[in-house]
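[Help] Beginner question about ligand-bound structures

Sorry if this is basic. My supervisor gave me a protein sequence and a SMILES string for zinc ion and asked me to "get the holo structure". I don't really know what that means in practice or what format the answer should be in. Inputs are pasted below exactly as I got them.
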Amino acid sequence: MNLGSKIILIVTKQKDGNATTTFLKKTLGTENIEPAVTPPPRTSNNAFVKKPRLGPSKSRKREIPEGLWNKCPQCSTLLYDKELDENLKVCLHCQHHFPIGARERINFLVETCSFTEHDADMVSVDPLEFPAYAEKLVRDRKSGAQKDAVVTGLGQIGTHRVALGVMDFSFLGGSMGSVVGEKLTRLIETGTQKELPVIIVSTSGGARMYEGMFSLMQMAKTCGALAYHAKQRLPFISILTDPTFAGVMASFATVGDLILAEPAARIGFAGARVIKDTTQSALPPDFQTSEFLLEHGLIDAIVPRKEMKSHLDFYLDFLMSGQKKILAPTE
Ligand SMILES: [Zn+2]
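Answer (accepted):
No worries, everyone starts somewhere. Holo just means with the ligand present. The predicted complex, written as structure tokens, is below.
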């Protein structure tokens, strides 16, 4: 601890006229003076020997900043966030599909800058004054990137203009209330009017019970709009992602001309526990997964997230070919 010390030269005149010299060492900022040459024995208050304490000891544990790493729930591998994002939120080791927000999904599905959002400012009201509903709406509007559980608009996939709706599970569990139903219905009607194929990516816990009957009405409303769309011989592609359940599965999500699903997505109407309790029978281990539903004919194909865009382009090439020929002016 000699840093900050200085040597003090003290010259004293003795009685016989001879001068003696003593060297003292002083540490700056302290009042203790210690001879540098012949130090007296110091047994107490030795501030220079003891290492000064700098408050509470600081942990040397290396801290990993939050938000940089993600642990895969399936294979437990630690995944670097940047790599995970570049891989469209799919585990690089086991291909587990992580949940993804509506806007992220739109970004990788459509051609760059081709998406125009519709009805972005439409917000739900609280018609039944359901306890805590209004607060939950405010909370999810603040935390999310959209004002309700679906983002709709027109975009381009490959060479095809499409009417695209993408649900977001982070907003009240992707539940379908009056706004989700209305936005999807308007999207489908725009698709019908502009002769565009409709693609809806679903992820939902079902109808939004906070809005009661208003939510349940959306099931019929969306399907009605799709019926008019189908009358124009325009295709509707439904994409089911993890999880898609209840009122959404019981309405527009299962009436697609093509029904696609992401791998290992949980898809069903009632939950497995309810079905098990009601039927009093054992359920197969892969019950209500996209693989199970493909085997049993409910869905047409399982498409990994990274291949979804190219598959959609291919399907649309097929479904929209000869569209102008079919829609003759007399029809
Ligand atoms: Zn994994």
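A couple of things worth pointing out: The CA atoms of residues 115 and 155 lie 4 Å apart. The chain has ten helices and twelve strands. Feel free to follow up in the thread.
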